[in-house]
Design brief:
The chain is α+β, with helices and mostly antiparallel strands. It is built from 20 helices and 19 strands. Helix 3 runs antiparallel to helix 19 and helix 4 (79-85) packs across helix 5.
């Protein structure tokens, strides 16, 4: 007995020392923005890989296919993850549990090859492993090589040492590459040497970092980034630049015209401020919330565009039960909403810029055959709906008719005067294929767009493939937030099976055709994603609820990159 007390004291001291050592070795969180270049076009961070992984594995979609793909539930024991976070265990588990990750898009390069335009974003992923270089280097090198093989197939990799330890992997054709650099406890992986070195220069103090942007910190606080799965940010300087890269496509111009992009960016800078978003788990799905900050004067002028009407739900009787995307605009007066957009442009921009931005606005409706928006919109009542059919590339505009006589007069001007379109007033009529546009008037609604898309729509309606009350409940199609002026529903089933296949491949398993077919079957009852848009005091807020959120988007980009040279 006399040895029992010293043994007990020794055991308690040993336990305290072990606990203190584990606690002392827990990683201290850093600001990942301090590793990102200040001029990053897009910035995205996550401070806990295990939390993201757990959110995805606890999602409704993953649970519905877990048995098929052989995914095992994570152990409920907290000791293993805690030990790994404290640095105890296999190096892969230690790095995964301790790492903070940031993704930056540093720029976009465009090159033309014959009639094909190639758009290549310059991307880098920064990983603060919180693990000593001597311990994690070999695993990091192996991981970079596996990434190159996953992205491009067979790759040739070389290693060299300079200001950091580099691993450079090129695909067999030599066009594309994965470049990794290990500097202390940090790993930087990009699709070019330039992208990787840009991040290393920040770490070495040779160029400014993004964390010096005060609006970044404000956005983090406003969106509660500390408790989010992920946080993203586009600075005030780069939000207009981002807009200028995509806007030319709306007016039929290919990206790459530097003068046009500069003009668009300078003009957009008078309207847009920064963009920020976060991602969180929500009832078995992922919720992404975006804040698009605008100039205060612009917010005031946009209020009529976001004046929301209480609308009847009778429009569902003209909506097909299968679609790729459906957007419902619940503006109280469509023509006033349009006018407010025109006023924003006119009040903030000079004459030349106003003309270009007005063209961008009109381009949003010209694809339906509408060249004079005011005339058409003044005859319509809410809601105004855009629909992307299950087949084809275009979309349709659907709206409730307000003034039938004036609408017919406006349609005659738009479609019949120059012979570019036709007007049908019966589902039994057959659209003439040689006419580019068709307007269909049925049950008090206007359905308008390219003739090829109208044909797809009419075939669905004739086959009674229309949304019913059962469909509304099954698909959870409803205007969920009464304050949301714009609600978009997107069919996720079309891409979920391949996305799950990619996730499985990342985890080391290739799914068979039979397993993919079983996954498709299990996804039959998966709901569509929804996006709600409202106007607040800072600008436009958008909330998207989907199966995997932005994480799914990032995975799909990796997937498409594998197959696109």
């Amino acid at each position: 007995m006399k040895f029992l007390r010293p043994l007990l004291v020794f055991s308690c001291l040993a336990l305290l020392l072990i606990t203190a050592a584990l606690w002392w070795n827990l990683p201290v969180k850093v600001d990942m923005a301090s590793y990102a270049p200040a001029d990053s076009l897009i910035y995205l961070e996550t401070n806990s890989i295990p939390e993201v992984n757990n959110a995805l594995q606890q999602s409704d979609v993953w649970k519905s296919v877990s048995a098929i793909i052989g995914s095992r539930e994570q152990s409920q024991s907290r000791f293993g993850p805690l030990a790994a976070r404290a640095g105890v265990g296999p190096v892969e588990a230690v790095v995964a549990s301790r790492a903070q990750v940031a993704l930056v898009v540093l720029g976009v390069d465009t090159t033309e090859n014959a009639d094909l335009l190639r758009v290549k974003p310059e991307v880098a992923v920064i990983v603060e492993t919180h693990t000593a270089k001597w311990r994690m280097k070999s695993s990091a090198v192996a991981g970079i090589k596996r990434l190159a093989e996953f992205a491009y197939g067979s790759s040739v990799c070389t290693e060299r040492s300079a200001e950091a330890d580099y691993v450079e992997c090129s695909e067999s054709t030599g066009r594309r590459q994965v470049v990794g650099a290990i500097d202390g406890s940090v790993i930087v992986v990009g699709n070019s040497v330039k992208a990787v070195q840009s991040c290393l220069q920040v770490r070495m103090g040779q160029r400014p970092s993004l964390n010096s942007d005060p609006e970044l910190q404000n956005s983090r606080r406003n969106l509660r980034a500390e408790s989010a799965l992920a946080f993203g940010y586009v600075s005030k300087n780069n939000a207009p630049r981002l807009f200028s890269l995509g806007a030319p496509l709306l007016i039929g111009k290919a990206p790459g015209d530097q003068k046009l992009e500069q003009l668009l960016a300078e003009s957009a800078g008078k309207i847009f401020q920064n963009i920020a978003w976060n991602s969180n788990s929500s009832s078995g799905r992922i919720e992404d919330k975006y804040q698009i900050s605008l100039d205060p004067a612009v917010v005031n002028r946009l209020e009529p565009a976001f004046d929301t009407a209480a609308i009847a739900e009778d429009f569902w009787k003209v909506i097909p039960d299968s679609f790729r995307a459906l957007t419902i605009y619940r503006n109280k007066e469509p023509v006033k909403a349009w006018s407010s957009l025109e006023m924003v442009v006119a009040s903030k921009l000079d004459t030349v810029s106003s003309v270009i931005f007005a063209s961008l606005l009109r381009a949003g409706l010209s694809g339906y055959g509408i060249d004079n928006p005011r005339e058409i919109l003044s005859t319509l009542s809410p809601p105004l709906i855009t629909l992307r059919p299950i087949l084809g590339e275009g979309s349709l505009m659907i709206a409730k008719v307000g003034d039938a006589e004036k609408l017919r007069q406006a349609l005659n001007k738009e479609l019949l005067t120059e012979g570019k379109g036709q007007i049908l007033e019966s589902l039994s009529a057959e659209p003439a294929s040689e006419k580019e546009f068709t307007a269909l008037l049925v049950d008090g609604f206007l359905i308008m767009g390219k003739t090829e898309n109208i044909k797809v729509y009419m075939a669905q309606v004739r086959n009674q493939e229309i949304v019913t009350q059962d469909h509304l409940r099954t698909l959870q199609l409803s205007n969920r937030n009464p304050a949301a002026t714009i609600v978009t529903y997107t069919n996720e089933r079309l891409g979920l099976a391949s996305l799950i296949g990619t996730l499985s491949l990342i985890n080391g398993k290739t799914l068979s055709e039979k397993e993919l077919a079983e996954i498709q079957q299990s996804l039959q009852q998966i709901t569509v994603s929804s996006t709600e848009s409202t106007l607040n005091s800072n600008g436009i807020e958008r909330k998207t609820v989907s199966a995997f959120g932005q994480f799914g988007t990032l995975i799909s980009l990796a997937q498409s990159d594998k197959s696109t040279p």
